[in-house]
Design brief:
Its EC number is 2.7.11.1. Strand 2 (about 35-45) and strand 3 form a beta hairpin. The strands form three sheets. A four-stranded antiparallel sheet has the order 1-2-3-4, covered by helices on one side. A three-stranded antiparallel sheet has the order 5-7-8, covered by helices on one side. A two-stranded antiparallel ribbon has the order 6-9. Helix content is about 35%, strand content about 15%. The chain has about 260 residues and is an alpha+beta fold. The radius of gyration is 20 Å and the shape is globular. The protein has three domains: about 5-100, 2-Layer Sandwich (Phosphorylase Kinase, domain 1); about 105-140 and about 190-260, Transferase(Phosphotransferase), domain 1; about 145-185.
């Protein structure tokens, strides 16, 4: 079956799910997604699913399969992650179906309110077990200076992307940032398999956390899965950080080196 990703409509989606061995009974509600097309539906056995159609060209097949394998390993280790279901068949494009997890969205803390309890930090440590799930990624991208800073800088410098009056000052600030980050990344900081996009919107809560959307999983320092939990002014973030680390480091040991 051939199709154009930009032409996805209910009929094409139902055909794709049918080819994958899933039968829609009701629903097919579109969910928010910046990169992909994501829908929720209920099948003939009244089981709820979330199905994702990956945007072509963003990830290779090997990278997508490695994401699915990471989710499965976390699930086997009894870490609460929404892992994809094996599909009886698969159409010619990249598709993932996951049992729809229950729970409420875990939004950011109220500005100026009480910080999150220390137990939240312990919950955030669960996708970072030291040995059980740390089979290294071979195809997923790494959080490193080359791909995150040097390559984008080269792209910006190669064309007229910036107003001429701002380019000199912009690249001056960017080069200083690259130097500081490069110095920090030379530290002996463990590179682990990360969720990669661990913000409050990707955590559901029902008697504990459920982590969803591993689409951005990658290798990098643990801080990448922690800093996006912070919000507000700097003094508020420092309070939240101390609270998070109190729970996180109870299970994982000190991570201070990666916070530079």
């Amino acid at each position: 079956m051939r199709f154009n990703y930009s032409d996805l409509n209910p009929d094409l989606i139902m055909d794709a799910l049918d080819l994958s061995g899933l039968r829609i009974d009701s629903g097919l509600i579109e969910l928010n997604s910046y990169e992909n097309r994501v829908y929720q539906f209920q099948d003939e056995d009244r089981r709820r699913y979330v199905v994702k159609f990956y945007r072509p060209g963003r990830w290779s097949r090997a990278q997508i399969l490695e994401e699915h394998d990471f989710a499965a390993r976390l699930n086997e280790a009894e870490i609460p992650v929404a892992a994809p279901s094996p599909l009886p068949a698969r159409p010619c494009w990249s598709i993932r179906a996951t049992p729809s997890p229950s729970g409420r969205a875990w939004g950011p803390p109220v500005r100026g309110g009480q910080p999150r309890p220390a137990g939240v930090g312990g919950a955030l440590s669960r996708p970072h077990p030291p040995d059980r799930c740390q089979s290294p990624f071979h195809h997923r991208v790494r959080l490193d200076v080359e791909s995150m800073l040097h390559e984008p800088r080269q792209l910006l410098a190669s064309g007229e992307w910036l107003p001429s009056g701002l380019a000199k000052s912009f690249f001056g600030v960017l080069d200083e940032l690259i130097k500081h980050v490069s110095d920090a990344m030379t530290l002996d900081v463990a590179q682990i398999s990360l969720h990669g996009d661990c913000h409050p919107g990707n955590i559901l809560w029902r008697d504990g956390p459920m982590f969803v959307d591993l689409d951005d999983c990658r290798s990098g320092p643990a801080i990448q899965d922690l800093w996006m939990m912070l919000s507000g002014e700097r003094h508020e973030q420092l309070i939240q950080l101390d609270t998070l680390l109190a729970g996180y480091e109870e299970f994982m040991g000190s991570t201070r080196a990666s916070w530079r």
